[in-house]
Design goal:
Blueprint (H helix, E strand, L loop, with lengths): L6 H116 L2 E5 L2 E5 L1 H15 L3 H14 L6 H14 L3 H14 L6 H14 L3 H14 L4 H13 L1
Antiparallel strand pairs: 1-2
Helix pairs in contact: 2-3, 3-4, 4-5, 5-6, 6-7, 6-8, 7-8
């Protein structure tokens, strides 16, 4: 046998070689596919790892931002609470200031009122007595009313003293005509007719248009009658009727004159 053998063997050998080549080629294709799959898996793992890292980083960043936001909100809340507290404090201070201001204004008003009251004690005030209006000091008014209070009690001796003192202390008083009239009446009650006549005449001379003039003229006539000076008393009654005929005192004078006839 020479060469590669018989034709039959050659065919078998060729078929074996062909099968071996075909099997080798198939083996090569599986390796490529496996390698491709491995590469793909590697890429997928790499992508997954990168995604997981990015996701973890994003979660961490979000957590940090959320924590920072919570801190910022907490700081803002604290600031708001502090501002509310400060505002409440300022409101309390404002309310206290308003109360202090009101108290100060009240005190100023009281002081001003007290000052005005003290000033009024020294400032003349308008008074009206026996149809006349005039200015009188507070002390002047007080002393006259005190003397009159004594007179009204029927304490004529005491009222005489008080009225004489008043006339000496206030020689230019608007009360003077009235004080002379009541002093004359007190003296008439004490049967001091001469001094009573003097004071009644002083009233008539000082204020001839005074409301008490007709009564003073009638009182003078009564005093003169007590002093037994009938002529002078009758003359005074006639003058009263002539000058003040429409007054009650003139009516009483007419009645007295009728008794002289």
């Amino acid at each position: 046998m020479g060469g590669f053998g018989t034709p039959a063997k050659l065919l078998v050998s060729a078929l074996a070689i062909a099968w071996a080549g075909s099997a080798f080629g198939g083996l090569f294709d599986d390796e490529e596919a496996r390698k491709a799959i491995l590469d793909l898996r590697q890429k997928v793992e790499t992508l997954r790892s990168e995604f997981d890292q990015k996701l973890a980083d994003e979660v961490r960043r979000s957590s940090e931002e959320a924590l920072q936001l919570r801190r910022s909100l907490a700081d803002l809340q604290n600031q708001l609470e502090a501002q509310r507290s400060e505002l409440a404090k300022l409101r309390g201070q404002d309310e206290q200031l308003l109360r202090d201001l009101a108290e100060l204004q009240r005190r100023q008003k009281d002081i001003a009122q007290g000052f005005d009251d003290r000033i009024r004690r020294f400032e003349p005030a308008k008074v009206a007595v026996d149809g006349r209006e005039f200015l009188a000091d507070l002390g002047e008014k007080r002393d006259f009313e005190a003397a009159m209070q004594i007179f009204r009690k029927g304490e004529f001796a005491g009222s005489q003293v008080s009225l004489v003192d008043f006339l000496n202390r206030y020689p230019n008083s608007g009360y003077r005509p009235s004080a002379l009239f009541w002093l004359g009446n007190a003296q008439y009650a004490l049967k001091d007719y001469k001094n009573a006549v003097t004071n009644f005449r002083s009233l008539i001379a000082l204020a001839p248009d005074h409301l008490r003039v007709p009564e003073s003229m009638l009182a003078i006539a009564n005093c003169l009658l007590e002093l037994k000076d009938t002529k002078a008393a009758r003359k005074m009654l006639e003058d009263l009727v002539a000058a003040h005929g429409s007054t009650e005192a003139a009516g009483a004078a007419k009645d007295r004159l009728s008794r002289f006839k």
